[in-house]
Amino acid sequence: MTRPNDLLIEMQTRMLRIRKFDERASKMVKRGEIPGTVHTSIGQEAQVVGACMALAEGDYMTGNHRSHGHPIGKGAALGPLMAELTGKATGVCGGKGGSMHLADFKVGSLGESGIVGSSIPIATGAALSSKVLGTGRVALAFFGDGAANQGCLYEAMNLASVWGLPIVFLCENNQYALSTPAHTVTAGVIAERAPGFAMPGIRVEDGQDVLKVHDAVKTAVDRARAGKGPSLVEVVTYRFNEHSEGLRLGTDYRNPAEKEAWMKRDPVKLFRAYLTDNGITDSAALDALEAEVTAEVEAAVQFAADSDYPDSSVAFKHLYTEPFGANL
Amino acid sequence: MTVMSYLGAIGAAQREAMETDPRVIIMGEDVEANVYGTMGGGKSRADKGDFLQLFGASRIRNTPISEEIMVGAAAGAAMTGLRPIVDLSYSSFLYMAMDQFVNQVAKNRYMFGGQASLPVVFRSAMFFGLNTGAHHSDRPYPMFMNVPGLKIMVPATPSDAKGLLRTAVDMDDPVLSFEACILWGLKEEVDEQEYRIPFGVARTHREGTDVTIVGISTGVHAALQAAQKLEAEGISAAVIDPRTLVPLDSETILRSVARTGRLVIVDPAHTTCSAAAEISAIVAEQAFDCLKAPIMRVTTPDTQIPFSPAIEKQLYPDAAKTIAAVRKTMDARARAA
Questions:
Q1: B24 to chain A, minimum CA–CA distance in Å?
Q2: In CA terms, which of B75, B131, B230, B321 is 20 to 30 Å from A226?
Q3: What is the DSSP string of B278-289?
Q4: Residue B46: what pLDDT?
Q5: Range of A32's domain?
């Protein structure tokens, strides 16, 4: 697949945004500047951005607790995301969602989910809307290797297949459900479950390569948009940080050699090398880009810091369309 | 006006909604074949309007037996422009989709700061009183009253069923409709023209001065029968049907209790945490000074529903139990005096 240079640069930009945003968020959790915790996508940027950028602007997606990368990858503004993480009124959800429940409908992000697998049916419904209303939009459901063992995934795959819905089921296989190695709780290969539902299953073995991810997901998205129905794409990747920031487990569940080998395959560094090796851009331009993204993240942090907390009355808003009660 | 059954009225409301708004779709198990008779005439009586022929396979969708995806996909579709009506058949099937109801349907608008709207209706039938055993006899609306973000309707008559369902489909919030099977054949004069009954507005079936009887679903009919018999004894009973449990028209109930000083609530749900329990708490909190007697709940005892016809029916509220409860509240006054 040939891609214009500006698309390649945009991929690196979005991967850098995720990296810098999550590095900053991690620090803020440890300093108590973000309440609760966050789950970073550090190490998984290629998998996230390769998938998000295979979607068109009006397309839909849903995600999971490892949640910041998805809206950033889809092009969401960083300020309201960071403000949401700090619980401010200017947050993308007005401070009521927090890290695990980000949603930015402006970019088609229909919501992350703190319940593993729970948002997969939502994406399936968005694909149903597209089909019935004829809007041509595609939906993509992000879920992890842990969610691959939730029943709702298979209910969704079956329904999407019999109804020919325009959806991509995207398994982000980072190989661990918190501390549990995927292979110890998952029979067979996740992608190989697809033919049982009469849909293609594609496995991207090197999920650290943004172009490989983009190729695979683009194929699935094009197929969906052409009315040929759903696909399952499994992307093998690795998270560099702990399951959640601040989590300290007494057990080292990841083999140090394995971890080291994956850490060497840093998707941001790999793609930087690709861009310079292929003469797409040069080091100086990439350094400038990195500085620009760092400044963008700092501006988002400042925006969050300068924002007010929501008024206490907001706790009672948005449960229903207002006003609530008689004569609705 | 025309005579409609409860089921016919639901079918009429669904047809109106389908005809009025192309974003309305119906999905569920066996909807194409019109198994429950709410989808027009069905194939065998296509002259009465078979929904599949009228609206096509894109809008009338048979689903696999997969409640979790039915509910979740309807929610996702509602968030992106459709207005689905989901036919979940039996109310106890809702449990299969509990995660979607509680974590997605009820929370998405709130959690995402109002970015999402969920105009979706989930219809299900309560098969209690029909010897279907424990798996099909549930009256589970109180569980869902405990989930903020859902609206709940419990129509007791054909005219209420039609008007409430139209409102539900037009509303931008998720609605659960609990329909009692023993009411399916109930007939009434119903306006065949479009009309809508607002949520949160109780229906006062009778005014009364001695006791307020609040009936829920089939409890409305037990209350009405009881009121009629009590009238012969010189006891004047008001009968109120809240029609929607969320939102609940507590004002109408409180106003009536202020007048009568006595409250009996007839609710086919299990006693503990029933709708009756909630209404009773509201009245105790807000109108304690008006009460001349303890509030009585006529509910189904906290046991599962047995299959044998010999032992099932005794469990549910009926007119006799309602009358007994009313007499107790009247005796309480006698004791106090």
A1: 10
A2: B75
A3: HHHHHHHHHSGG
A4: 65
A5: 5-316
Structure tokens at A79: 């300020």
In this complex, do B200 and A129 lie within 8 Å of one another by their Cβ atoms?
A: no
Q: What is the value of pTM for the model shown?
A: 0.96
Query: Is residue A276 scored above 80 in pLDDT?
Result: yes
Mean pLDDT over B20-24 rounds to 97
- Rounded to whole angstroms, the Cα distance separating B265 from B60 reads 39
Banded pLDDT at A327 (limits 50, 70, 90): very low
* Strand boundaries in chain B, DSSP class E: 2-5, 24-28, 60-62, 83-90, 121-126, 151-153, 175-180, 187-190, 203-206, 211-215, 237-241, 244-246, 263-270, 296-300
- Contacts of residue B77 in chain A, CB cutoff 8 Å? 125-126, 128-129, 132
Calpha distance B296→A138 (Å, rounded): 55
pLDDT above 60 (res A326): no
* A154 CB-near residues (< 8 Å, 6+ apart): A193, A197
Residues of B in contact with A97 (CB under 8 A): 111-113
Residue A289 lies in a domain: yes
Q: Is the pLDDT of residue B267 over 70?
A: yes
Smallest CA–CA distance from A114 into chain B, residue: B103
- Closest residue in B to A122 (Cα–Cα): B76
Catalytic annotation present for B136: yes
Q: Which of B63, B85, B115 to mutate to test the interface with A (most CBs of A within 10 A)?
A: B115
If one counts the domains in chain A, the total is: 1
Cβ atoms of A85 and A99 within 8 Å: the answer is yes
What ipTM did this prediction achieve? 0.96
| Residue A156 falls inside a structural domain | yes
The per-residue pLDDT for B334 is 60
For position A288, what pLDDT does the model report? 98
Domains of chain B: 2-190 (3.40.50.970), 203-336 (3.40.50.920)
Strand partners, A169: A141, A232
Mean pLDDT (whole number) for B97-119:
97
| Mutation choice for A interface testing from B18, B103, B111, B166 by most A CBs within 10 A | B111
